[in-house]
Amino acid sequence: EMADAPSNIFSMFNNADIKFPEIKDENGEEVQITHGRYIRLLESTDRRVRQEAFQGFYAAYRSFKNTLAASFSSNVKQEVFFAKARKYPSTLAMALDGGNIPVEVYTNLIAAVHDHMDLMYRYVELRKKLLGIKELHMYDLYTPLVTDVHMEVPFEEAKKIVAKGLEPLGEEYHGILEEGFHNRWIDVYENENKRSGAYSWGAYGTHPYVLLNYNNTLDNVFTLAHEMGHAIHSYYSDHVQPYIYAGYKIFVAEVASTCNEALLIDYMLKNTEDKKEKAYLINHFLDKFKGTLFRQTMFAEFEMITHRMVEEGESLTAENLCKIYHDLNVLYFGKNVIIDPEIDMEWARIPHFYTAFYVYQYATGYSAAIALSRRILKEGKPAVEDYVHFLSGGSSDYPIELLKGAGVDMSTKEPVNQALSLFSELLDQMESILE
Q1: Spatial contact of 130 and 194, defined as CB atoms under 8 Å apart
Q2: Which candidate among 103, 123, 239, 388 keeps its CA 20 to 30 Å from the CA of 73?
């Protein structure tokens, strides 16, 4: 409980005490900024709304910058203390030890993304061009690039699209998917007092269950594919492994779900001739890359820098935390984006920073999933057999070894390079479509 104090203090502050201002929305109506509304406001097509939401949101955090810096610093200090007490060479080594993950996996991720930073610079330049603005600000990074496409997809149609998209995974996988669709594995629609979002859950000895709040959007189609990826991963693990090995580590958890999304986008892009629809789909995937691979790697680098500073006896203050975070945004987004001073406070609002060295797994999982999907599409049956063996592995081996068996070696830069190669191809397609 003592060690959890910084995390608990931050949680109380972030979930209960912080108060955000009101702004006027697109219709001139007063609306309160909240955690839940913030991203929706940043996606607004009205630039004034985006700017005011961005500035108001971070002003609330800046008012407490020294308190939040003390909380974050205390959390890092206790992690450094435990690492030293347990004779680890670093806090990073301690955090990765539970899954027997080599430190090189973490550092290779950051190095590989650094090697391809020009791709993010291309992405933001394309965004600036398509939005038709002279200066691209941080609050312009979330508004959709393609707005005049409205893809209404009823749930019955979504099931058919997902089933077709996942056909490369073979008959057995397809049969399990259809079993889930037709045997009430899925709680589909929003309902009173129902939890928001989407997730997959279950117990050993039963089939998995999937919760959705389906509302006919393209994003929801991908969510269906994503959650069924989790569900079928659990299905295979539970059927092959004994109870003690049926669960699996977070490091591999997002691989099965994201692989499904990658296969689905490939299918949908190959089966539409409509240029705007194709651009809409590519925009969806490019934004996913930005948010998962680039952004989470930037978070991971921030964690690595700040923990090393404390290990070397340096202090963490609001001023140096903001400078570190500002400089990382300059590095990751480049000269074509105005790095507004408000973004310097973003470090102060990330709950995952209180679970040290966690977020990198989103980026590695995403990279592994893209690499696996490309192998499946290229090689067919042999790759599918390896992939199903991976899904069946549970925790019978360490995550790195399970992924090696599927043909992906996360101890090298190669899977990240493959993922970034796809990002480059999608950028090429987007530029070609919109010329």
Answers
A1: no
A2: 103
Digit-coded pLDDT (tens) for 131-145: 999 999 999 999 988
Burial of 404 (0-12, 13-18, 19+ CB in 10 A): middle
Q: Give the model confidence (pLDDT) of 332-354 as tens digits.
A: 999 999 999 999 999 999 999 99
**Pair 198, 210: CB distance under 8 Å:** yes
pLDDT at position 3 is: 85
Helices (DSSP H) in 290-359: which residue ranges? 295-311, 318-333
- Per the model's pLDDT, the better-predicted residue between 68 and 433 turns out to be 68
Q: Provide, for the chain, the percentages of residues in helix, strand and coil under a 3-state DSSP scheme, each rounded to the nearest 5.
A: 70, 5, 30
> How far apart (Å, rounded) are the C-alpha atoms in residues 92 and 303?
9
**Does domain 87-435 bear CATH number 3.30.200.20?**
no
- Catalytic residue, from 227, 261, 342, 346: name it: 227
If one counts every other C-beta atom within 10 angstroms of the C-beta of residue 290, the result is 20
Buried/exposed 37-62: b ≥16 CB within 10 Å, e otherwise: bbeebbebeeeebbbbbbbbbbebbe
Q: What is the DSSP string of 70-138?
A: HHHHHHHHHHHHHHHHTT-S-HHHHHHHTTT--HHHHHHHHHHHHHTHHHHHHHHHHHHHHHT-SSEEG
335: its two tokens: 């000269």
For residue 352, give the nearest of 429, 250, 227, 205 by alpha carbon: 250
Could you give the angle at which helices 275-289 and 218-240 cross, rounded to 10 degrees? 50
> Quick one: how far is CA 231 from the chain centroid?
18
Token pair in block for residue 141: 């990074």
